[in-house]
Amino acid sequence: MYFSRIIFSVCLALTTCSVAAIELTDSLHSLVLDAKQVLTLDNTADFTATTVSDVETERLGPNSIAVYAPENAGFYSLVLSNNKTSKRLLVIVKKPFNANNKQLNNYQIGLYPAPYKGYPQYGAPNGFIEIFEKDLTRQLTPHVQVKNVICKQISGFPKYLYVNNDGLMMLEDLLTFVQNEGIKVSKFAFISGYRTPYYNRSIGNGKHSRHQYGDAFDLYIDEDGDGRMDDLNGDGKLTIADVDVLYKVFEKFQKHSRYNGGIGRYKPASHHGGFVHIDNRGFTARW
Pfam families, alphabetically (predicted)? Predict the structure, then answer.
C-alpha cells in the first residue's frame, strides 16, 4: 500500500503539475509551489514532519520526503524535526495564472514576452503568490519580507508577486557571504524586486528585464537608515565608489557559489542612492 501510494502520487503529479526536487539546506526557508504540486525534499534523512504542519508529507526513501502542496493558494507551515533541532519552512502555494491573460483578479500583470533567445528560464510564470495587506510584513526568509520584493505598481489588494525558490535562497546565501567579507550589514535594503510586465513597461525598462522572473533584486546596504548606500569604502563620501565595493563582492559571490547571472552597478541619483543589481538568470552578464 505504501509503495502504491507513492506511485499514484507521482503519476498524479505528472499529469496535473510539475514534479521537482530541492535540497534541505540552511538557506532554505520557503518553498514556492504550484497548487497540488508534489515536491521531493532531499537531505532529510533524520527529519520527520511534526503534527503542527499544515501540509501532507510522506517518506519516499532514506534521504527524501514528498511534500504535497495544498490545492488552494496561500501560506502554509511545514515543521521538520530530528533529535537535535527543528526546521520551519513556509510553504507558499501560488494562484494559477494563464499567461495569455493580462490581469489576475483585476491586478494588472501584462503580457510576458516570448522567452529571451528561447531560454526556458525566461518563460512566463504559471502562477503568482497572492498577497493581501496583512501579508506585506510576512517573512519569506529571516531577512526578507514580502514588502521588500513585491512590485511597486499602485493597486488595491490582493496584489500578486512572483519570486522563486532559488531567488530567495540566493538572497540568504548572498547576505551571509557579504557579512563574511567583513562588510557590516544585518539585512539588505531593496530598491526593487519583482516587476510585472505591465509595470516594467511603464517605467521604460527592457522587455526581458530579469525582474519579471522571480530572481532579480536591486540591493544596497543601509545600516544607518538614511535610505541611501552606506559609506562602504570609508572615505567619508557617498559615491559610486561605495557601489563598486558591493559590486566586487557580488562578483566574488557568484564565482564561489552555484548562482550565475547578471550583476549591474548604478550610481547615486537625486531620487535614490547607489545600488547593485543581481540576478540568477543562468548565464553571466555584467554592466
Answer: Peptidase_M15_3
Give Cβ neighbours of residue 234 (< 8 Å, ≥ 6 apart).
none
Radius of gyration of the chain from Cα atoms? 20
What is the three-state SS of 194-239? CCCHHHHHHCCCCCCCHHHCCCEEEEECCCCCCCCCCCCCCCCCCC
Residue 217 has which C-alpha cell? 533584486
Distance CA 86, CA 235 (A): 44
- 265 CB burial (10 A radius; 0-12, 13-18, 19+): middle
Helix axes 240-255, 165-180, angle to 10 degrees: 110
Cell numbers for 40: 521531493
The sheet with strand 159-161 has its strands ordered as 95-96, 127-131, 159-161
Q: Please give the Cα distance from 55 to 39 (Å, whole number).
A: 12
Which three three-digit cell numbers place residue 158? 490582493
Q: What is the pLDDT of residues 81-94, one digit of tens each?
A: 999 999 999 999 99
Report the residue count for the chain: 287
The pTM for the full model equals 0.92
Contact 78, 89 (CB under 8 A): yes
Beta strands in the chain (DSSP E): 19-23, 30-33, 38-42, 48-49, 56-61, 64-68, 74-81, 86-93, 95-96, 103-104, 107-108, 127-131, 139-141, 144-145, 159-161, 189-192, 216-220, 262-266, 275-279, 285-286
Pair 196, 155: CB distance under 8 Å: no
Contact 104, 160 (CB under 8 A): yes
pLDDT tens figures, 219-268: 999 999 999 999 999 999 999 999 999 999 999 999 999 999 999 999 99
Alpha-carbon span 261 to 253, nearest angstrom: 11
